[in-house]
UniProtKB/TrEMBL annotation:
Source lineage: Bacteria, Bacillati, Actinomycetota, Actinomycetes, Streptosporangiales
SUPFAM superfamilies: Winged helix' DNA-binding domain
Protein name in the entry: MarR family transcriptional regulator
Domain HTH marR-type: 1-145
Pfam families (UniProt xref): MarR_2
GO molecular function, one term: DNA-binding transcription factor activity
Record-linked PANTHER family: MARR FAMILY REGULATORY PROTEIN, TRANSCRIPTIONAL REGULATOR, MARR FAMILY
Signal peptide per UniProt: none
Record-linked InterPro entries: HTH_MarR-typ, MarR/SlyA-like, WH-like_DNA-bd_sf, WH_DNA-bd_sf
GO biological process: response to stress
Amino acid sequence: MYLQVDERLRYPLPVSVAPGAESPAAVVERWREMTACHAAICAALERELGERHGLGVSDFEVLDRLVESPKRKCRAQELAESVHLSQSALSRLVDRLERTALVERCACDNDRRGIHVVLTEAGERRHAEAAVTHRDVLARLLPAG
């Protein structure tokens, strides 16, 4: 890989020179298509999960991860990493879910500093209802692969 300097830019652009390699313009185009698809799916999920189930995408993602977790609970730090949120953002999200009785917080048995987020029965029911909508949106909007 060599660097090609575009005089209009302040930084060099890496350019692949491998035989048969995709052009940089084609790679950028694929990237833009992928981000447009992601934005469209996120917008549809926000709208449909919100209207039908009172959940945002991140709310659903937390419930979804908890459903998949052993004993329906997960350490807050691990949960934040798995849903790509900061600890602070996850804490605010868990506050909202806790107010609607979809999750509970409890101390970790083996680490008093750690917190588990635990799915409640109400959270499990809401997730089951919302999962149908979530999977339907994904099936409709994700490109066939």
